[in-house]
Amino acid sequence: MSQTGGIEAVVFDIGRVLVHWDMRALFRQLIADPAELDWFCSTVVTEQWHYQHDAGRPLAEMVAERKAQFPACAALIDAYATRFNETIPGPIEGTVALVEALHARGVPLFAITNFGADLWQGFRPTLPVLARFRDIVVSGVERVAKPDPAIYALAERRFGHSGPALLFIDDNAANIAAAQAAGWHGHLFTAPALLAQDLAGRGLL
């Protein structure tokens, strides 16, 4: 067993690990009334609805359907599609620094993200640290999303490493559990400082 416990590469999630993500960051700019904002984000443009795009459903189809269901909210639903990057206020600096530190040590880096294919095209150029990753599996492109076991099998083939050689970092416990069921190592992300401790303890930093 190596100093790193057999880990050969580190795989990051992106949303809420590398970047902040909050639908309200956009819609609180457009909806002044707190009660209306709560209703809109829990009923119209919800994370559960958004997940359909992560899983591969075309954005235009989703938006048209939602606007038909909530015609009074049409302009706000359009904003979800055209101003999505405003739901991502910025990077989580402490995690970005850890990516740079791992890269400097020559640790192979990869990512798996639940992200819609259409929205990914507009987002990726906004985050320079993504250039550190040798490959990124994007759920919307592959039409399979975490925690489906198929996305982990796909990632192993793409990344060229077996599950026991991979450490996966994600903020969602179900996604970590699915990775561990596939034989991967897992870190449930809550804070950059705790991740740094874990990486150091595994001999990766």
List the helices and strands and how they pair.
Blueprint: E1 9-12, H1 23-27, H2 34-43, H3 47-54, H4 59-69, H5 74-82, H6 93-104, E2 109-113, H7 117-123, E3 135-138, H8 139-142, H9 149-159, E4 166-170, H10 173-181, E5 185-188, H11 192-201
Parallel strand pairs: 1-2, 1-4, 2-3, 4-5
Helix pairs in contact: 4-5, 6-11
GO molecular function, one term: hydrolase activity
Pfam families: Hydrolase
Protein name: HAD-IA family hydrolase
Describe this structure in words.
The chain is an alpha/beta fold and 205 residues long. It has 2 domains: 9-20 and 90-201, Rossmann fold (3-Layer(aba) Sandwich); 23-87. Helices cover 47% and strands 11% of the residues. A 5-stranded parallel sheet has the order 3-2-1-4-5, with helices on both faces. The longest helix is centred in the middle third of the chain and has 12 residues, at 93-104. The model has no long low-confidence stretch (mean pLDDT 97).
Name the descriptors:
205 residues, alpha/beta, Rossmann fold, five-stranded parallel beta sheet, 11 helices, 47% helix, HAD_sf, hydrolase activity, HAD-SF_hydro_IA, HAD-IA family hydrolase
Question: Can you give me a brief rundown of this structure?
Answer:
This protein has helices at residues 23-27, 34-43, 47-54, 59-69, 74-82, 93-104, 117-123, 139-142, 149-159, 173-181, 192-201, and strands spanning 9-12, 109-113, 135-138, 166-170, 185-188. With 205 residues, the protein is α/β, with parallel strands linked by helices. Keywords: Hydrolase.
Q: What is the helix/strand order?
A: EHHHHHHEHEHHEHEH
In CATH terms, what is the architecture of the largest domain? 3-Layer(aba) Sandwich
Find the structural class using helix and strand composition.
alpha/beta
Distance between the termini: 17 Å
- Rg, Å, rounded: 18 Å
SS strand fraction: 5-15%
**CATH homologous superfamily designation of the largest domain:** HAD superfamily/HAD-like
Summarize the amount of helix as a percent range. Answer: 40-55%
Strand order of the largest sheet: 3-2-1-4-5
Count of helix runs: 11
Largest sheet: 5 strands, parallel
Global morphology = elongated
Low-pLDDT runs: none
Kindly state the number of beta strands: 5
- CATH class annotation of the largest domain: Alpha Beta
Q: How many domains make up the coordinates?
A: 2
Briefly note the CATH topology name of the largest domain: Rossmann fold
User: What does the average pLDDT come to?
Assistant: 97
